[in-house]
Amino acid sequence: MDYEKVIPGIIKKTDSKILLIVLDGVGGLPHSETGKTELETASTPFLDEMASKSSCGLTIPVLNGITPGSGPGHIALFGYDPIETQIGRGVLECLGIGATVGKDDIAIRGNFATITPDRIVTDRRAGRISTEENQEIVSLLSEKIKEIKGVKVSIYTVKEHRCAIVLKGSGLAPYVSENDPQKEGQPLKPIKALDRSSDKTAEVLSEIEKKVMEILMPVDTKAKGLLFRGISKLPDIKTFSEKYKLNAACIATYPMYKGIAKVVGMDVIDGLETIESEINALKGIYNQYDFFFLHIKKTDSYGEDGNFEAKVKTIEEADRCLSVIKNMKFGAIAITGDHSTPALLKSHSWHPLPLLINSPYAIQDDAKRLTERECAKGILGRIYSKEIMYLLLAYSLKLDKFGA
User: Fold this and answer.
1) Where are the beta strands (DSSP E) in 77-183?
2) Res 256: pLDDT
3) In a domain, 221, yes or no
4) What is the pLDDT of residues 203-222, one digit of tens each?
5) Which of 100, 188, 220, 247 is buried most, with the most CB atoms less than 10 Å from its CB?
6) Nearest to 220 by CA among 126, 118, 153, 121
């Protein structure tokens, strides 16, 4: 399946538009009482209508049985191999909030945490401090930590207990162990370079860890230190425009998904908070782009909370808001998820996801709803998520014939 050897020679620019709708973590497992998944439980007249008029199937984000993170789940949906193209969470977090990350910079996702003077982590999220308190803490730290060992240190507020850090300087590499113990009641893990090229990065992060604790211990806050996660650099990959000759826009509310879109060169529409505002943004920029990535987050959030009923309601809200796209013209529309997040598991899972592709050239099949069991009847069968982009190009007539 070496698309990179085939696609460049047959892809073409056309006026048709493509819409990729990602219902984050939408896949689920049956409720113990009803035997129905979240999608099967929800009332979704629009998604049902779309499925009945589309080609349907199931998608596998990475490999059978492998549970993907959000990064691999989305990079696959954009047509990149999620195993070959691995993007660190730090890069995604930093780009998602608008921080500048150069090709030689180190990007880190940080958690403010409650840590005792003897380095025991008692709350990995510092009581989920408010975003306003986070901003005050970041302001204080930014005044006192500007540069370490010739490396410029920039700290940014993300939301609640989360922050982002960018290191700019020479001799830096991202192969450094994280200090997060992953459980309360455990000591901070030692920060170690995993190869010689990362020695300086490890030294800088160890010094930042020490200084942050010294600064915050006397302050009236539950945030007493920093957990460093997702230590990473920008990957060297082709942009979305280079791969597909598409002018692409990202419509999302959460920083991480904006970050993934920026990594592949999409324009990001900022200032969105609700599904309704995302749909309004889609209508507002319709004439400016020929590819639209529209991301809906809360289906995943409620799955991770184990809140089956709230996930069902979010699916129903998405169905109502998305119904307006019936009045918009697209050469091809795909609706799917990046991974499953069953409320039963309260976490991401390996289960295949339902997929529909709607186009004037799609063959209608026996699937009548966008659900796990219905889409298993679909004509597309089981495909890898990285193949969806190529199908969208084909269904929107953006691919010429291959060979004589």
Assistant:
1) 106-115, 120-123, 147-148, 151-159, 162-168
2) 83
3) yes
4) 999 999 999 999 999 999 99
5) 188
6) 126
The pLDDT of residue 4 is 85
Across the strands, what pairs with 114? 123
CA atoms within 13 A on the CB side of 353: 35
56 CB contacts (<8 Å, ≥6 apart)?
354, 355, 356, 357, 365, 367, 370, 374, 375, 377, 378, 379, 380
Helices (H), 125-264: 131-144, 199-216, 240-244, 255-263
Task: Report the distance separating Cα 305 and Cα 130, nearest Å.
Answer: 19
What's 129's domain CATH number? Answer: 3.30.70
Q: Which two tokens stand for residue 194?
A: 């995993």
**252 contacts 295 by C-beta, under 8 angstroms:** yes
Q: How many CB atoms lie within 10 A of CB 195?
A: 9
**0.70 exceeded by the pTM?**
yes
Which residues constitute the domain of residue 157? 93-232
| Tens of pLDDT, residues 137-184 | 999 999 999 999 999 999 999 989 999 999 999 999 999 999 999 999
Rg of the chain (C-alpha set): 22
Q: Which of 195, 216, 232 is the last residue of a domain?
A: 232
Q: Which ranges in 192-239 belong to alpha helices (H)?
A: 199-216
400 in any annotated domain: no
Say yes or no: 134 and 249 in one domain. no
The answer to the question of residue 403 being in a domain is: no
Interval 310-335: pLDDT, tens: 999 999 999 999 999 999 999 999 99
